[in-house]
Amino acid sequence: MSAINTYLLRGASAGELHAALVDASAGKGRPFAWGLDRFDEARVRLPYPETAPGVADAETGELTPVPTGSWLCEIRLVGEVDADLALIAQSLVTEAQAASG
Questions:
Q1: What is the pLDDT along the chain (101 residues), one digit of tens a residue?
Q2: In this structure, what are the phi and psi dihedrals at residue 93, rounded to the nearest 5 degrees?
Q3: Alpha carbon separation from 77 to 24, 45, 63, 72 (Å, rounded)
Q4: Closest CA to 21 of 9, 3, 29, 12
Q5: How many CA atoms lie within 13 A of 30 on its CB side?
Q6: 88 backbone dihedrals φ, ψ, rounded to 5°
Q7: CB 51 within 8 A of CB 68
Q8: 99: left (phi > 0), else alpha (psi -120 to 50), else beta?
Q9: HEC per residue, the chain
Q10: What pLDDT does residue 18 have?
Q11: For position 15, what pLDDT does the model report?
Q12: What is the spatial distance between Cα 97 and Cα 91, in angstroms, rounded to a whole number?
């Protein structure tokens, strides 16, 4: 059974995440992203806005998600490790953490 390696990338925009994946694809036979906004959707969960639990709705008590301003993207690779993705994931998370505190 092959391991599934998941890389979580965080960026300021969907475009920034796309650019990071294009860079990580350089020299590889199968790109993670290409063109203006194309992704390998078999391996890449499309960028989506990061949210945090918000405040409870006064009537229903349900928490309304609040955007954090960041975007997330997940890449899942079956049976392979990608050092470029690991570096990008770490650097983007570190930059976002540094900006927040």
A1: 788 899 999 999 999 999 999 999 999 999 999 999 999 999 999 999 999 988 888 898 888 899 999 999 999 999 989 999 999 887 655 555 556 55
A2: -65, -45
A3: 14, 11, 33, 17
A4: 9
A5: 8
A6: -65, -45
A7: yes
A8: alpha
A9: CCCEEEEEEEECCHHHHHHHHHHHHCCCCCCCEECCCEECCCCEEEEEEEEECCCECCCCCCECCEEEEEEEEEEEEECCCCHHHHHHHHHHHHHHHHHHC
A10: 97
A11: 96
A12: 10
CA neighbours closer than 13 Å in the CB half-sphere of residue 45? 13
d(C-alpha 66, C-alpha 31), whole Å: 32
Report yes or no: 71 and 42 within 8 Å, Cβ to Cβ.
no
C-beta neighbour count of 43 within 10 angstroms: 17
pTM: 0.81
